[in-house]
């Protein structure tokens, strides 16, 4: 099943998509299986798996620190993919890898696509790779049906939005704030028209991400998007073994008003 199909069937069943982001190797790679299976059991649509990186330019303090802890545990792209592969047969939902470009190029695009596929990766986010450069890895990804997801920012001019929306695969990642990842309490109040505009450029699901950290925000964003991605709040809750918080966020996506 492709990422787009999985997202669409989750949304069609009358719910909004909910995609938690986790930092692979925060707490050690040995807990990765349990974390992923437990999130799957809660009913999440997909899981964004972050690969720790030494220079995470898009990341705010919560994710940056989780990355540092994972790096201190000796975690890298290769051992994350190897760890995922061991229990891939138990994972029924798509995984989306979030990694910067350098580790992929060092791995080799074809070898990466092969190993990522075997690890259950069906989508990829590469925040430091502009659309214009995606040909360096796109063919290899397509051969394995790994969707390359594009991020659309609030400040993208109309022409750029149209281009990114047309090129995106799996879903469109609509970044809801200007700046880096991390929980926020205030959002711009003209996000609804921005999302409506995005939907007009593509038939793909549009997911909102960046800054979302409460059940109320999950519901609010669900009212004008196809679902949400929650990173920093999940990373923080996992670090404190606070599954109650995680459950309340997932539940909110099931209440979100369906448009
Ligand atoms: O942490 P937040 O504010 O909830 O935002 C999601 C985000 O963490 C996750 O999708 C992500 C983590 N690192 C990234 C880098 C680029 C784009 C997206 C991401």
From TrEMBL:
CDD domains membership: Tryptophan_synthase_alpha
Matches recorded under Pfam families = Trp_syntA (PF00290)
Would the keyword Hydrolase turn up in this protein's UniProt record?
no
User: Record's superkingdom?
Assistant: Bacteria
The protein's matches in InterPro entries, at most eight in alphabetical order, are given as:
Aldolase_TIM, RibuloseP-bd_barrel, Trp_synthase_alpha_AS, Trp_synthase_suA
Its UniProt entry gives the catalysed reaction(s) as: (1S,2R)-1-C-(indol-3-yl)glycerol 3-phosphate + L-serine = D-glyceraldehyde 3-phosphate + L-tryptophan + H2O
Give the pathway listed in the UniProt entry for this protein: Amino-acid biosynthesis; L-tryptophan biosynthesis; L-tryptophan from chorismate: step 5/5
According to its record, what are the GO cellular component terms?
cytosol
Residue ranges annotated as transmembrane are: none
Catalytic residues of the enzyme: 48 (proton acceptor), 59 (proton acceptor)
* Family to which this protein belongs: Belongs to the TrpA family.
Q: What is this protein called?
A: Tryptophan synthase alpha chain
Q: What is the lineage of its organism?
A: Bacteria, Bacillati, Bacillota, Bacilli, Bacillales
């Amino acid at each position: 099943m492709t990422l787009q199909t999985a997202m669409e069937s989750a949304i069609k069943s009358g719910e909004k998509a909910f995609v938690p982001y986790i930092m692979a190797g925060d707490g050690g790679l040995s807990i990765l299986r349990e974390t992923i299976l437990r999130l799957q059991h809660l009913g999440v649509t997909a899981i964004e798996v972050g690969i720790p990186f030494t220079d995470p330019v898009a990341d705010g303090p919560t994710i940056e620190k989780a990355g540092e802890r994972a790096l201190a545990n000796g975690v890298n792209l290769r051992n994350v993919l190897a760890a995922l592969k061991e229990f891939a047969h138990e994972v029924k939902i798509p995984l989306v890898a979030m990694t910067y470009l350098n580790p992929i190029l060092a791995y080799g695009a074809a070898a990466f696509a092969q190993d990522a596929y075997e690890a259950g990766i069906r989508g990829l986010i590469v925040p430091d790779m502009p659309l214009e450069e995606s040909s360096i890895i796109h063919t290899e990804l397509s051969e394995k049906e790994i969707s390359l997801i594009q991020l659309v920012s609030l400040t993208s001019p109309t022409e750029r939005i149209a281009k990114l929306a047309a090129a995106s695969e799996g879903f469109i990642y609509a970044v809801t704030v200007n700046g880096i990842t991390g929980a926020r309490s205030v959002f711009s109040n003209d996000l609804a028209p921005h999302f409506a505009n995005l939907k007009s450029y593509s038939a793909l699901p549009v997911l909102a991400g960046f800054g979302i950290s409460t059940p109320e925000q999950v519901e609010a964003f669900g009212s004008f998007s196809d679902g949400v991605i929650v990173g920093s709040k999940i990373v923080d809750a996992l670090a404190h073994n606070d599954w109650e918080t995680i459950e309340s966020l997932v539940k909110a996506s099931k209440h979100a008003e369906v448009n």
